[in-house]
Amino acid sequence: MTKRIFSLALLLALLAAAPALAAPPVVTPQGGALSLYSPAPRYQIFQAPRPYGGMLMMDTKTGQSWQRIIVNTPQGIQIRWLKLPQVEGINEGETILWN
Description:
The chain is of the alpha+beta class and 99 residues long. The chain has one helix at residues 2-22; strands at residues 43-48, 54-59, 65-73, 76-84. Strands 1-2-3-4 form a four-stranded antiparallel beta sheet, with no helix packed on it.
């Protein structure tokens, strides 16, 4: 008798779950109830296109940035981070070229 009760309970559980399994996926628009927010990590690494970039690292709290360089030394090849200067403004007669 207990086998019949367990079998019936299992069958009812499977039948109850079938409509949920067959339903299309729920699509929420960006910014909907299921979107998550977390603050950006302190250091972010970007891959910039060459010849200007390579690998760049930025500190999101201070705005400082570094470029990864590969240096051939007498002791062997070393990977270093070269601090990039921050630009305070554009001089008269200069133009920003956005590529």
